[in-house]
Amino acid sequence: MNKTAANVFSISAIPSKKTSVKQITLELTPDEVRKLEQHCDWTGKEATDIIRELIQELPIS
To answer: Residue 6 has what pLDDT?
Structure first.
């Protein structure tokens, strides 16, 4: 593992009948992990939910 990759978050979900689900592995710096964990503590949400919400807000062109 290189210096910038501090933690790996594996994201998965239960597949539904309408959509297929893909698993994504993220390598995060220690600062990114700290920010994500603080946001989880502040909101009471799981990291998976926070990341999914951020992706859903991305503009589609």
So the answer is: 53
Q: What is the pLDDT of residues 7-60, one digit of tens each?
A: 666 555 555 566 688 888 989 999 999 999 999 999 999 999 999 999 999 998
Q: Is residue 61 part of a domain?
A: no
Q: Coil, strand or helix: which one is 8?
A: strand
How many whole angstroms separate alpha carbon 34 and alpha carbon 24?
19
Of 59, 43, 42, 35, the closest CA to residue 9 belongs to: 35
Q: Which domain holds residue 21?
A: 7-56
Whether 50 is covered by a domain: the verdict is yes
> Identity (one letter) of the amino acid at 33?
V
The contacts found for 50-59 with CB under 8 angstroms, 24 or more apart, are: 51/9, 51/11, 51/26, 52/11, 52/13
